């Protein structure tokens, strides 16, 4: 079957966030706060365990006072910031301004890397005349990240949860993306890494394909099967 459109998730599918250590070191350096390397590693590990890095490991435990905002964190920008800075505040960092600075850092293109095969796959789909959309549970505008890596021109439509007040697996987001491509959901393939969230596209009739949420170095060609699945050509 040849699909007329392909939708992609963002984090863990097309792009991967930096490590917690890199995230923290960048903010400490920018803030001019000197922390011994062993302490940086300790803080980073604790932040990772709490799930404070958006796009990073899920929290091992969500504190009861954050449970409500965590459940709807991707439905609004303020909710997203409150959820993740709230988790970060479970770790006592050396300066109070670091919590918001860490959150701000994760929204910059420098904090993200595209998977090695992302440009190849998007370009191949585009050249085959297949529409491309991005559907993401997120609390901020990710378009500058795509522009920074030269991938924005390959995307026809973005549907971001915080802009619509609903989050995946709500079928409304996928419907908006299919409409943005001008395609019937049955002619659209959804590619993501979260079986619950991204699997919501199946409710509309989209075919769904999952990739593994791994570090960039550990998944050099995880997107390439999409070329064949979408009917854009065989794997080289």
TrEMBL record:
List the InterPro entries: HAD-like_sf (IPR036412), HAD-SF_hydro_IA (IPR006439), HAD-SF_hydro_IA_REG-2-like_cap (IPR044924), HAD_sf (IPR023214)
By what name is this protein known?
A: HAD family hydrolase
Which GO terms label this protein's molecular function in UniProt? Answer: hydrolase activity
What Pfam families does the entry give? Hydrolase (PF00702)
The UniProt entry, under Gene3D superfamilies, shows: HAD superfamily/HAD-like, Haloacid dehalogenase-like hydrolase
Top-level taxonomic group? Bacteria
Which keywords are on file for this protein? Hydrolase
Matches recorded under SUPFAM superfamilies: HAD-like
* Species: Streptomyces paludis
């Amino acid at each position: 079957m040849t699909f007329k459109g392909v939708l992609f998730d963002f984090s863990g599918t097309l792009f991967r966030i930096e490590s917690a250590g890199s995230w923290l070191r960048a903010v400490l350096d920018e803030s001019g706060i000197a922390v011994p390397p062993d302490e940086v590693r300790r803080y980073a590990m604790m932040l990772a365990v709490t799930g404070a890095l958006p796009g990073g490991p899920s929290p091992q435990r969500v504190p009861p006072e954050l449970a409500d905002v965590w459940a709807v964190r991707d439905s609004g920008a303020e909710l997203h910031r409150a959820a993740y800075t709230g988790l970060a505040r479970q770790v006592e960092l050396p300066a109070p301004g670091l919590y918001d600075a860490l959150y701000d850092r994760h929204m910059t293109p420098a904090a993200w890397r595209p998977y090695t095969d992302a440009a190849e796959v998007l370009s191949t789909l585009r050249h085959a005349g297949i529409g491309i959309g991005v559907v993401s549970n997120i609390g901020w505008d990710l378009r500058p990240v795509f522009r920074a890596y030269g991938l924005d021109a390959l995307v026809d439509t973005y549907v971001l949860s915080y802009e619509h007040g609903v989050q995946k697996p709500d079928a409304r987001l996928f419907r908006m993306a299919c409409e943005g491509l001008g395609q019937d959901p049955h002619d659209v393939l959804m590619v993501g890494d979260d079986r619950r969230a991204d699997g919501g596209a199946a409710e509309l009739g989209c075919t769904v394909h999952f990739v593994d949420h791994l570090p960039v170095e550990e998944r050099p060609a995880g997107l390439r099967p999409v070329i064949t699945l979408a009917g854009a050509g065989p794997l080289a």
